[in-house]
Structure formats: structure tokens, C-alpha cells
Design brief:
mainly alpha; 2 domains; 7 helices; elongated
Length: 152
Amino acid sequence: MKCTDIEAQLLEYGELTTAHRLVVDAHLSVCESCCTFHSALIEVDDRLDREFPAIETSPAFNNRVRSRIQALDAAVRKPSPIPEILDFAGYVSIAAAILLTLVSLYPNSILLLAKLTLDSRATMFGEIVVVIIAIGFSIKVYADIRSDARSR
């Protein structure tokens, strides 16, 4: 188990089931960092108990606070679909660029397959496709740059 998982369970050590407590105790016996963290938590609890012995919260209050924290935590962890959408736009742009390259390299083969004739409308359509591809590449590059900046 990861130390971050153990540390999260140490915060509720008194409320753990016996099976979970055995897993945490086994990790504590081999991990000095988590053992130090656990000792610090015990010391903080002891100090708080000495300083504020009469302060008790109701179970209903504790439940409300925990549910609020979980709701906030879930909202923060909810992944955004925007990177996937931008990736899709980038990949579609790449596929369109490949297709456009093939059409320009082998116009006769493609025209025979599609039975199209080139006229001024087809040329204008090609120019529009190139502009759309350029916009798609720009969006993809911008999304990649932003995601790299956020991860630092």
C-alpha cells in the first residue's frame, strides 16, 4: 500500500476495522516516515485533549463535516472532459492532414475512387479544410502547452 493511503487511514486510525488496522500496523513496522507521521498525530491528539478536554462535537456534526469534505473532495477530483475533446480534435486534424496529403499526392487515384472532378468549388473546399486543420492543430498544441504548464 502507498504511504499516502496509509497516512489517510492514520487520520481515522481509531475508527478502522481490525483488518484495516492490521494492514496499517504492518506498514508502520517497516516504514519510518509513516511511523513518524503516526507518532506526530498521537502527540497532536494528546495535546488537544489536554488543552481542550471539555470540547466535544456531536456525531451529527461530525457526519455533516465529513460528508461536506467528501463532497468537496469529489468535486475537486472530478476530471474534466476538455483535454480528451482537445486530443480528439488534434487527432482528427492529423487524420485530415494525412488525407489531404494523400489527395494532393495521388489526385487521380483518389478522384477515380470518389468519382469527383476538381473545379473551383473543390479548390475552395480544400482551402477551407486546410484552415480547419490548422485551427485543429493550434487547439491541440495550445491544450498540450497548457497541460504541461499545469503539471509543473
